[in-house]
Amino acid sequence: MSGFVHRPEPVQVPGLVHLHTGKVRDLYRNEAGDLVMVASDRISAYDWVLPTPIPDKGRILTQLSLWWFENLTDLVPHHVLSSDLPDGAPADWEGRTLVCRSLRMVPVECVARGYLAGSGLLEYERTRTVCGLALPEGLQDASELPAAIFTPATKAEVGEHDENVSYEEVARRVGVETAAQLRQTTLAVYARARDVARERGIVLADTKFEFGFAEGPDGEEELVLADEALTPDSSRFWPADTWQPGRPQPSFDKQYVRDWLSGPESGWDRDGEQPPPELPAEVVTRTRAKYAEAYRLLTGHPFE
Ligand code: ATP
Ligand code: MG
């Protein structure tokens, strides 16, 4: 089983049409036809949106994405038009709301991996490949790859896993030219972000981008970086000072949540029929602190 433990009711705001409730973000369209993205404090783990929010998580992710977007504009344009609160929006939307260009989204999750982890590690252990790309012998959990690789996936519905696909499959779906542009842009942005993060004490092991197309200033269709970017929800961040291949790394994201849920205290069976339980206050506090710490290290400013 999977999905929302409690599916939230969309907030009604005059002038905004509710489009979609994602795992984390709620999407609206404003009267100008732009997209209004509101990042909630929802957290998902093991394919469930948990019943307990992490206070400020949506604000931290929104502010961190904005920071990255602004630092990447020489590599790729981004989708944000404004972070002003739409008229009539609830005060709680402050800091977590972005007005964005409404893009024709490319239906590919553009993943870059510079280190071996997660599903990449599992595949490597079986076949010495990651998403079908051959890798040298001798790599271990959390090893740095000889060069970063583009490992695209297709987006799954809530409760399903994203599915890795080959580069050739991406080319079949979106065309060779767009596929090449996705790969090139994904790897260029990853390389920049990895270097920036490394200087600030974080290993950016891997990350996922979403792109869309819109008409650019010259009237031509341009590729635009969308969604969120380079946050703990879309990336694996490891503390650089304790990075050591050969074992799982501590991380800046949902680790406490996952550990608690899969441990004995939660009383929850991942493979059973029951939805996951509420998180204890301590897990909430520590998780919030991890998100805030990633923000502080990367941007150089404390959150709030
Ligand atoms: P998850 O990211 O956890 O897999 P999700 O993608 O369904 O779940 P959210 O991330 O909560 O949900 O919602 C954001 C949605 O908005 C995504 O479907 C994303 O593709 C879409 N999106 C992001 N930016 C734009 C944009 N500029 N124009 C149109 N759609 C966008
Ligand atoms: Mg998303």
TrEMBL record:
Enumerate the UniProt keywords alphabetically.
Answer: ATP-binding, Ligase, Nucleotide-binding, Purine biosynthesis
Q: Where is this region: Disordered?
A: 261-284
What PROSITE patterns does its record include?
Answer: SAICAR_SYNTHETASE_1, SAICAR_SYNTHETASE_2
Q: Which reaction does it catalyse?
A: 5-amino-1-(5-phospho-D-ribosyl)imidazole-4-carboxylate + L-aspartate + ATP = (2S)-2-[5-amino-1-(5-phospho-beta-D-ribosyl)imidazole-4-carboxamido]succinate + ADP + phosphate + 2 H(+)
Pathway(s): Purine metabolism; IMP biosynthesis via de novo pathway; 5-amino-1-(5-phospho-D-ribosyl)imidazole-4-carboxamide from 5-amino-1-(5-phospho-D-ribosyl)imidazole-4-carboxylate: step 1/2
Report the residue ranges that make up the SAICAR synthetase/ADE2 N-terminal domain in this protein. 19-273
Entry's EC annotation: 6.3.2.6
**Which domain of life does this protein belong to?**
Bacteria
Which chain positions lie within coiled-coil regions?
A: none
* CDD domains for the chain: SAICAR_synt_Sc
Q: Name one GO molecular function term.
A: phosphoribosylaminoimidazolesuccinocarboxamide synthase activity
Enzyme group, top EC level?
ligase
Family affiliation:
Belongs to the SAICAR synthetase family.
Protein name as annotated: Phosphoribosylaminoimidazole-succinocarboxamide synthase
The gene is purC
